[in-house]
């Protein structure tokens, strides 16, 4: 099932160039994801998970977003050094992405059919399976859009959110990409629709064997869907490991807090009410652990020295956390 | 869509009716045409004759209903200044010149402003953006008549590249059209730029990007088509300002269009012509805006499907 | 970092220009103008500006009656400022009031008011001004009237659009539940939220108004002579654009600088106060 | 009938080669009314190059002569019957045959019809024209008119149209292509743009025009007319004096009319001195003769001529008085400096004596600023008057109004203003006096004085040249000493020409538009 690593991110650093100075929104992030594997990226809003995704896609907000260091290796090819034209060719065909809000992510002026067709025309390298419209219908059927023959002629405003997100999914997989990044794809959907949609993603992944990066702040989803996860805080990875290891033995206080603040599976969390304070402003010069100001266990070491990744509490080899206080209360 | 268009059409008609009332009462407030139409040494008999001839001796409401009835048929009476022609004839005769000039000015504005606005937005913060900002600001900072005269002096008298003024071929239209387009370029560039900036931030642009659409297709097919609503809205306003602008520019460049006609008619107290020229302008404006509404519906399925 | 390099620092510069060209002259023309703006030095007619063969007596030259251009421009600032302020205040007041009513009451009132807006836009304002001028002669009041006529619709449309949104807002609903009267809701809850829009829009209208005044003067229906209104100075000097270019050039420059800096300021304000507003 | 401006004409206009034929282009102020029916205009004779009246003018002296359609004329002693002998070889253009008495009768009917708005048409009121034979026509007038020739020449209230064309085509024919009889014939009209004429080959009069085509362009904006002249698009331009300097600096030449064509003045409107006049507003400051004199003396006329007329004008001693016409008094002209000369001390003394401003209910002098085609200096004149008057200590205000608006007020006798006026063409004294100093004038306007009225009544009836001269002189003397108006300047008509194409143009400046004798335009080969 899980095969070769297809995407490796190494020491990625992304800055937003704002008036006040560069904001390190992604700071030295490394991870990899393999074919057939689903990697969850978890964290509060503004922790850098979306920026990581946009960096991989090379569609950072212009002109302020910039990758300032690291490598993004897609089957060994470094995307960071690719030209814009090369990236255009890679996007959609080898890297797919599903955006958060289906209500705004489809162009309101074009029929959904045409939007799928556009993706097919650009990305479908196989080119098989009949005319573009027919393949568009097929794509929609693949993502379980009922009455696809008629729906291809519909405009986004004539469809429900769940239906639109299926269309977005169809667009994302139209090129049969190696990696698909889903950036909180269900946040804007109703609970029941969410489940259907996640199921769909799982099915598609099982069928195509592609790697998936699933960005969310919903640990419930991660538990159901992902094989591994990374937890991000203030642009950095604070903990990573298999879902089983991390859930069993959360090694970073932030992960712990995240888990504690999920009273039930499938509950959306925007802010960690369980933890006082807010994520730090990225402009502040960071000394020590970024989480220290909110961390109940923080001491002077935490406040003065930045922790580096160390093996997590589960003891598994790939479970790592960046914390001086892993052995707290345990 | 049908209902949307019908509603808009009826609204325009209603506006037109109110405008007839305004036009009528205004021309009857602006003093008697008699003083302008008769010589300084006119006799009482001449005055009485003309008053009768123009129907100015009848009660106002009667005059208005006659006016309305005739106006519906496009008849605004005979011109008092251009004897031997009906007012509508005079206006229709001059309108093509204004439309030619306005059309060229519109073309220039669109051809310059839209790409400029789009590029300025796409390359926000670049030197092109700075140039666009300067153009946009300068364009709105000079009175058109002054710009027109300066253009005339520099490009016609000193450099001799174009005729100074007067009616003729395309070369005659270049300078007045530029003078006329100047302000519009400014306004349109600003609008296009800000509309594009807004759209370029939209999620569907991000989606287009991540699905591998080329930059050019993103800018034009995805972003511009959505941003176009704003410049298109402005076309409605533009139609009006080009007509209004024609009043000044046609005077400067001796361009025999409806704007120049309007001034002559007002100064000469040629009520029928004033009324018909204002009505034509208003109809033209309402029509342009009606077309803009239809265009919205054509472009945007959300409007098309409403109601 | 390079987000908006072109605009950076410009608010300060434009504000400075505005103060120097418009505000100080408008307030203190009597003190700083070297000559009486109406005083005709008939022996010194059409004197060129300093550095173009003129003297320090008339730094920017004189017009065809020998009046000092500099003094006329300085005094003209009063008219530019007062037309802008009075015209825009009234235009904004009318437009805002009607926009509030239309957006808040909706229904019939909205339909009627928006129709009136359409009608004002549809009527060629310059022609109406010409027609009115033949009735009453040109006057300051006429110019103000035309200004109001031209700009109120923009305010009405914008204010209505925002009121439509605001009236559905939670805090308005809460106020309504708490028994606040419509007038109070409009005044205490809606108006404060659209003040920014109004300020930005008003700033951006200054340029429109100054140019409009010049255009009216060109057509002979602006502020009556011998008032040294800028537009009139430009319009009056246009005949001598070749030989005595300074008569129209310097007032034109004053207009240019004023409009330029007001628009820059307006842009800046808009970005600051009301990024969603994008009307010109 | 208007010629439609279509895309086709546009293409043709662009494609037309610069004709080998020599074209003279004159750019001028648009006429008040654009029509081929002259009687429907207030008197702008734009058709002058093609259509003729009975009486012509000597281009050098401006005197009436037989260069028009009549070879001679006689009148009876009491000036009520005028008989014109038409030139037998005079022919209409386009083959409409000889000019006959019937054409004159027909034209008089047209010009005096109910739709006539001609200035000065009152002089033809009640006139009857009778064809004595084919080439003799007699006008019978209800009252003596010593200035009857003025109707046919100068003012040109009667222009001869072809009856044959009218019978064949009706007014439509005139609208399309009116047949005239001059050395140039009507070619076309571009509405809003201009009028075109072409040379008549082998003209019946033997006049051979030195160019092939004359184009009159109507351009409202003076700066644009100047640009057209300098860019070589026009050969002749009518320009305000103040921009003529720019043209001269660029190598253009000014050609003035041989005679004064225009007199200017400021009128004290509302000076209704006839007893019991209900229109009299007693608060007008200039009802006091001392104020009128003081105003006259506040004005530095030489400076004014420099400012307004670029120095090319004469100080005018009495408005409406001219050496060419009845009642001219050299004595008044000589006394002018003593009585009207610029003297601020005297002006202030007079004001003090009259108790100005304290004793005046309404001391403000409203000065009218108005635009009048042909007198582009009027707005500046108003400002200049304000400068002069304020310098002397008067309180003034400028009132802006268009000329038609002033006309309305004058007709209602409510123009209580100090306003500019012109006398163009310089009219025969009887006409001028009636217009500007008498209650008999229409509109009844500025100055009405019982003493003048007495003289005027007799003047209008008198047929004895000596007595008439005496009466006119008497009236001029009276208004001079009453300071009835502020006479300003006597000016020529002027055109600015491109000396590369135009050698000269001899014209007298005696018509209502100032220009005539287009056949005299001398072009460079």
TrEMBL record, chain A:
GO cellular component: plasma membrane
Keyword Transport: yes
Organism of provenance: Pelagibius litoralis
Topology within the bilayer: Peripheral membrane protein
Location in or out of the cell: Cell inner membrane
Gene3D superfamilies the UniProt entry points to: P-loop containing nucleotide triphosphate hydrolases (3.40.50.300)
Keyword entries, A-Z: ATP-binding, Cell membrane, Membrane, Nucleotide-binding, Transport
Short name of one Pfam family: ABC_tran
Compositional bias ranges of the Basic and acidic residues kind: 317-330
GO molecular function list: ATP binding; ATP hydrolysis activity
The protein's name: ABC transporter ATP-binding protein
InterPro entries: AAA+_ATPase (IPR003593), ABC_Ni/Peptide_Import (IPR050388), ABC_transporter-like_ATP-bd (IPR003439), Oligopep_ABC_C (IPR013563), P-loop_NTPase (IPR027417)
UniProtKB/TrEMBL annotation, chain B:
Keywords: Cell membrane, Membrane, Transmembrane, Transmembrane helix, Transport
InterPro entries to which the protein is assigned, alphabetical: BPD_transp_1_N, MetI-like, MetI-like_sf
Record-annotated membrane-spanning stretches: 12-30, 101-122, 134-161, 167-188, 232-257, 277-299
GO biological process: transmembrane transport
Keyword Transmembrane helix: yes
Keyword match Transmembrane helix: yes
GO CC field: plasma membrane
Superkingdom, natural source: Bacteria
Residue runs in coiled coils: none
Pfam family, one: BPD_transp_1
UniProt-annotated location(s): Cell membrane
Domain ABC transmembrane type-1: 95-296
Membrane-topology descriptor: Multi-pass membrane protein
Protein family per UniProt: Belongs to the binding-protein-dependent transport system permease family.
Identification of the protein by name: ABC transporter permease
Organism from which the protein derives: Pelagibius litoralis
UniProtKB/TrEMBL annotation, chain D:
GO molecular function: peptide transmembrane transporter activity
Primary localization class, coarse: periplasm
BP GO annotations: peptide transport
Any Pfam family hit: SBP_bac_5
GO CC aspect terms: ATP-binding cassette (ABC) transporter complex; outer membrane-bounded periplasmic space
UniProt keywords, alphabetically: Signal
CDD domains listed in its UniProt record: PBP2_NikA_DppA_OppA_like
Localization annotation: Periplasm
All residue ranges annotated as the Solute-binding protein family domain in the record: 68-407
Signal sequence interval, chain numbering: 1-21
The keyword Signal appears for this protein: yes
Highest taxon of source: Bacteria
SUPFAM superfamilies registered for this protein in UniProt: Periplasmic binding protein-like II
UniProt similarity note: Belongs to the bacterial solute-binding protein 5 family.
Name of the protein in its database record: ABC transporter substrate-binding protein
Source organism: Pelagibius litoralis
